[in-house]
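Hello, quick one for you while I still have it in my head. I'm working through a protein record and want to make sense of it properly. Would you mind checking whether the tokens look sensible for this chain? I owe you a coffee for this, so here goes:
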Amino acid sequence: MLFALALLSATAPLATDMYLPGLPIMAESLGSTTVGVQLTLTTFMAGLGLGQLLVGPLSDSWGRRKLILAGTVVLAISSAICAMAPTVEVLIAARLIQGFSGGTGIVLARAVIADKAKGNQAAKLFSLMMIIGGVAPVAAPLLGGVLLGPIGWRGIFWVLTGLAIVMALGALLFVPETLPPEKRHGGGLKIMAGNFGYVLSKRRFVGYAAAMALGFGGMFSYISASPFVTQDVLGLSPGQFSMVFAVNSVGLVLSNAINARLIGRFEVRKLLLVGVTTMFTAGTLLLLAMIVVGYNAAVILPLLFVAVSAVGMTMGNATALAQAQVPKAAGTGSAVIGASQFGLAAVVSPLVGLGGEGTGIPMAVSIVVCSGLALTAITVLARESTS
């Protein structure tokens, strides 16, 4: 079940990382611009956020399983539409639907774990799920780089269609219903609004959810800008970009594994603070290096590795701490986390491209700002009670 949930949670890295090496080629193929193809990332992330915001609260009333199954079917259909898109406008619209349906698996995978586990056990399960799901960001850019030549960017979307079908089968065979009828809330907009009110009234939940979203925002600054920074600024080839991306993804997986081993020996909150502080420090050094030293790959790439790897000690811990604050509405809590996470990513994506293809400074600034705000959210909003 954990593997199936991790595969559902891998929607975002699979649907972004696999086609990242082809972004420059897509712009030329569709007669678009850098900003235009980056909007396919923006709408996908916006769809992920909106989908989770709707499906999470619905699952508190309807249960988890049937919504997971419906979402994966729509994901497969929308992925096929992406593969056949004749214009960038059609692709942007299809990516919105792909994100909306893909958000179902992401939000409900978190809700299922929150149904099944609490405390340190939940934190470990979230970290383990991210380790399993971490294979996706490692394999996806490598696979995308290999497939881009023989089958093109359209072929990559056909591969994503096949993967969506595998997700549907995995959910059908291995993910049971974890929210029994007696624990479900009544339907209706009033109940849904009440659940949102309950969740958002929890100060510490808001702080940890913000930290999770901002940590992801910092990572997505890198994801969105890295194809252009590595290839257009540092002069690497698409294959070399895929290797760099894979190495950074391995760092993310390893930090999740280390985090899972440390839970129980150290408080989850302290591990979270270590992760966010490390990301902020590496991001600050990255920005200073670009301004003072220039675009030296031997300096920039190691700092990016540290900044991205630090996310492994951020997202799982922040998610577990946030979900622990709202046990009566796990689906709604998961929806708020996911909507803020991917909504922020949708904002970050075009911003890091505003400087054009010849600079990496907007990416570095975004990493610093996101991680700095995450640190503030933990220490101010999610501060430990003194009473």
User: Anything to note?
Assistant: The two ends are 40 Å apart (CA to CA). The mean pLDDT is 85.
